[in-house]
């Protein structure tokens, strides 16, 4: 259990929240930084109020229907978990990959328990021990209950920690034989695939261990879509220039259900990134991308999608023309629009961190 230091009593009155309108005009970065801190303070205050309400609620009255439970669940558990668990294509591919790829008697680590589905699949595939970690305490508890309801608690251990906080000797009794790491978002890396696999490969997986997936690739096309552009950009409304709102626009990748919006592709598909998850450094970096334009136009973004190599010829992917996938394609906004001319090559600069994709000229 973590120890929390108690707040020291004070006789001073708490300071009033910062009034941005009265602050000296000493530069927008300062004012923006103050606003970010104020926003964070408000969020922390709301969390403290929820925690206080929960402490005042008798445990016997807590149920999924209780208002305080609903508030915390809504804040803590993303709704995409339900879409993911109803993604038949994804589930069938992963179940098949684990059934084919896990040797009998192996020890397995599954990063990101969720409902416990992949951990239970690994146990059914013949693993002797399965460890699955989940950093969200609510999901970890649900996974424990699901595993217990299926009579698999003697094989599966749910650990309520992020994988980067695990120690092979302490938590598993030694390195595991198989690593399952299906922690990807629309742009492949947004859920921390790179740092999680870097750590697990060095500290948790046996030297000759099996990785599922073993490789990951990202592809992209240049695209024009005024409709999608307006999901992340504004100019004038009612005769007023409100473009300063664009200070808060998303500059890295985000998911878009592209087939629901008018759009036009302006280039052929091209490789964007490729990772050998067993051997590559998996560090942040940058590279030049080149796209063969198929039409004249103004490209506003790069639309990306991934492929996961699950072994034995199985590939899991979310291309824009596959609306069955719960993973939407990723929209990576360009810092400035790029004019394309059919038959010519457009060059862009891709930068990726552990979690984000950004593209510039």
From TrEMBL:
Record GO cellular component, one term: ribosome
Pfam families associated with the record: PrmA, PRMT_C
Annotated protein name in UniProt: 50S ribosomal protein L11 methyltransferase
Record CDD domains: AdoMet_MTases
InterPro entries recorded: Arg_MeTrfase, PRMT_dom, SAM-dependent_MTases_sf
Region of interest (Disordered), residue spans: 1-22
GO biological process terms held by the UniProt record: methylation
Keywords: Methyltransferase, Ribonucleoprotein, Ribosomal protein, S-adenosyl-L-methionine, Transferase
Superkingdom, natural source: Bacteria
Protein arginine N-methyltransferase domain residues: 216-349
GO-annotated molecular function: methyltransferase activity
Species assigned in the record: Streptomyces althioticus subsp. attaecolombicae
